[in-house]
Amino acid sequence: MFEISDLKSKKLPELQEIAKGLNVAKFKTLKKLDLVYQILDVQASNPKIVEARTEKSTEEDKPAPKPKRSRIVKAKPQAKETKSPAPKKEESKDTNADQKTASSPTPAPTTEDKKEEQKPERKPRQHNKSNQGKKEHQKTGSQQNSSQQNTQQNNKPQHKKNTHHQKGGSDKNNSNFDKDLRNKYKEPEFEFDSIIESEGVLDIMQDGYGFLRSSDYNYLSSPDDIYVSQSQIRLFGLKTGDTVLGNVRPPKEGEKYFPLIKVNKINGVDPQVVRDRVAFEHLTPLFPQEKFNLAERQSTISTRIIDLFSPIGKGQRGMIVSQPKTGKTMLLKDIANGIAANHPEVYQIILLIDERPEEVTDMQRNVRGEVVASTFDKEATEHVRVANIVLEKAKRLVECGHDVVILLDSITRLARAYNTVQPASGKVLSGGVDANALHKPKRFFGAARNIEGGGSLSIIATALTETGSKMDEVIFEEFKGTGNMELQLDRKISNRRIFPAIDLTSSSTRRDDLLLDENTIQRMWIMRKYLADMNPVEAMEFIEQRFKQTKNNEEFLMTMNQ
């Protein structure tokens, strides 16, 4: 094994000979320092080859085990062979030839022969710094008589054995040095734990673990999913629909997803608070008592009419009943923008089921709220999955005291999707509706409630009527009495190009006395009695004309005295 100090002390031709013996590629074109490091790299990668070469050289260098015949002149070539450097095969052949000529019968060795003997001794001795004292001893021995020189030759095999043991110790040191070199050139390992912070909605699998779904993919399976272990779900008491914010780390070898390593917030609240929450099913529902102010900032005629004739409160379960092409989607958009402008504390979700893709894009660009959609080109199973996870997310937010609004378009198509997914029970209603299929959409719509002690879930859904489908009529009849706010749209009004096409006489809110003040209730009582004698088209024309002449609802109520 070669050390870097030994290699640097050698000349370039000697290094090239060593590199040739180690099969170093392109060693003739390298500079001295580059060649030194190349030899060390080859030595580090193939230590067994270097050790095998050194062991062969030591075995060849061992003298014959007959110390008594050391006085004979013919034994001197063997001593010369021991002095020759091991890795140089070509030089060893030349030295053997020189030794044959030098071994001719001469009476006594001359001083020139002694010098030639001493020169090859220096090359192998340079590998070990500990043998410098022995060189001086050999120089003094060259000036003495031949008998002293013969005794030195008798002692040389013992010195050779000692140097061999010293080489074994230096090999261990070299191997440790090579490991240090390899550690220096090893690529640094970077750890990105707790750097990335991500958020998602938890979807728990049947096996107990779960994934944080991304809203960019409508809470369906995606490459952005974050793995949540079963122990974390148990530790923090997580449920399906929890919005979790935490730190993640990149996946290691054999892992497929980014795992969650730290939970910072759950539903915008500290994890310790969420652990003691009451389940949504055990919360006390109340009538809506706080009204959404839709007639102030960013108000339109549609939102002003809704604010007076059928007010929407926190925890309202409202239904917009409409025929096709009556402007229900535009009305839903106006309601969403009015709530977002006047009530920034409300978390708003626009859920579009079985709608056109261009309407989804229009909603995403024009509404300030989270838009979750499953267009009509998707399967019914995807409609159901998206609706379920949105409902679970809303429930978890309400459990933590938030006010949530879901604008659903439309509940009729959601009920159709549930009817498609529902396995056949054998009981089929008229229109092909399964008897058990409407239970889940009813549970979705019935989740809207005002919670005692804080928090509310409001659902405003659209329902289709007079589409020519018997199934739609059955679905509408099932949902007709479940809501506490109803807004009827009339096709005759929309045909006159009067928008919003609201049938004022049939639109109302249950217990609106909890939402409106006493003065407004009295004036609206008079207004409804006045409009009852008109048909829906005349009533809408009259109200639209008066609303255009006033800036806000307070001014409109004051003009009723005139």
TrEMBL record:
HAMAP family: Rho. Residues 140-156 have a biased composition (Low complexity). This is Transcription termination factor Rho. GO terms for cellular component: cytosol. Homohexamer. The homohexamer assembles into an open ring structure. Keywords: ATP-binding, Helicase, Hydrolase, Nucleotide-binding, RNA-binding, Transcription, Transcription regulation, Transcription termination. SMART domains: AAA, CSP, Rho_N. The gene is rho. Belongs to the Rho family. CDD domains: Rho_CSD, rho_factor_C. It comes from the Bacteria. Facilitates transcription termination by a mechanism that involves Rho binding to the nascent RNA, activation of Rho's RNA-dependent ATPase activity, and release of the mRNA from the DNA template. Its EC number is 3.6.4.-. Residues 195-270 form the Rho RNA-BD domain. One of its GO terms (biological process) is DNA-templated transcription termination. Residues 50-64, 78-97, 111-123 have a biased composition (Basic and acidic residues). SUPFAM superfamilies: Nucleic acid-binding proteins (SSF50249), P-loop containing nucleoside triphosphate hydrolases (SSF52540), Rho N-terminal domain-like (SSF68912). GO terms for molecular function: ATP binding; ATP-dependent activity, acting on RNA; helicase activity; hydrolase activity; RNA binding. It comes from Arenibacter aquaticus. InterPro entries: AAA+_ATPase, ATPase_F1/V1/A1_a/bsu_nucl-bd, CSD, NA-bd_OB-fold, P-loop_NTPase, Rho-like_N, Rho_factor_ATP-bd, Rho_N_sf. Residues 65-74, 157-167 have a biased composition (Basic residues). Residues 41-180 are annotated as: Disordered. NCBIfam families: PRK09376.1 (NF006886), rho (TIGR00767). PANTHER family: TRANSCRIPTION TERMINATION FACTOR RHO. The lineage of its organism: Bacteria, Pseudomonadati, Bacteroidota, Flavobacteriia, Flavobacteriales. ATP binds at G313, K314, G315, Q316, R317, G318, K325, T326, G327, K328, T329, M330, R356. Pfam families: ATP-synt_ab, Rho_N, Rho_RNA_bind.
